[in-house]
Design goal:
Radius of gyration: 16 Å
Order of helices and strands: EHHEHHHHHHEEH
Strand order of the largest sheet: 2-1-3-4
CATH class: Alpha Beta
CATH superfamily: Glutaredoxin
Number of helices: 9
CATH topology: Glutaredoxin
Structural class: alpha+beta
Number of strands: 4
Oligomer: single chain
Largest sheet: 4 strands, mixed
Number of domains: 1
């Protein structure tokens, strides 16, 4: 059975635009997913990237256009300039880490719910009530938002270190075996790889 390590950021628009396609691919091939939320700005700093606000204006402008094109192509609602971006991604990431450890719900639904809250619903994913609502919608105990904060912080930091060591430089990023796939627009390639066609 294939194993997919999924590195992502809860504030990443492209993680949002990945939707639930990774989960559908994994189900098709009986693959398991390990969700690894990380500090995307920290990752950029460690791997030669820049936070969107620090990029040249031409890159910032293209990013907005590309996000809107991708959303239109996928039929997904998206506000390219959400009210609560950037925000602190750590609390929502800790909730994902706690939920994955606890089990009993759907981590993919949780991740998509959090990213959708930011990029389509004008909600602040650093706020407890938003995180709790996403946990409930994904079938988890909302109290997970308050549990395991130290373990969450440690895992969140460890995910960043692991990502850097494995050649991850953006989000979403998928690794299965020795194969790496960067971006929601490479999910088709991941699918073909798992099918033995790429």
């Amino acid at each position: 059975m294939a194993q997919i390590d999924y590195y992502f950021a809860t504030i990443s628009p492209y993680t949002y635009l990945a939707g639930m396609r990774l989960e559908a691919i994994a189900k098709r091939y009986g693959a398991s997913i390990t969700y690894k939320p990380l500090d995307i700005v920290g990752l950029f700093g460690r791997t030669g990237g820049q936070a969107p606000k620090d990029r040249h204006e031409s890159r910032q402008a293209y990013r907005l256009i590309d996000m809107q094109r991708q959303a239109a192509k996928l039929g997904m609602p998206l506000n390219p300039r959400p009210m609560f971006f950037p925000t602190n991604p750590a609390p929502s990431s800790y909730a994902v880490i706690a939920a994955q450890a606890a089990g009993g719900g759907d981590v993919g639904v949780l991740v998509h719910g959090l990213t959708r809250a930011c990029w389509a619903e004008e909600k602040n994913i650093a706020e407890d009530d938003v995180i709790r609502a996403a946990l409930v919608a994904a079938g988890f105990d909302p109290a997970l938002a308050d549990r395991g904060l130290l373990a969450g912080a440690e895992t969140y930091a460890a995910n960043l270190e692991e990502a850097v060591s494995r050649g991850v430089f953006g989000a979403p990023f998928y690794i299965t075996g020795e194969q790496k796939f960067w971006g929601q627009d490479r999910l088709e390639d991941l699918d073909l790889h798992l099918a033995g066609k790429l």
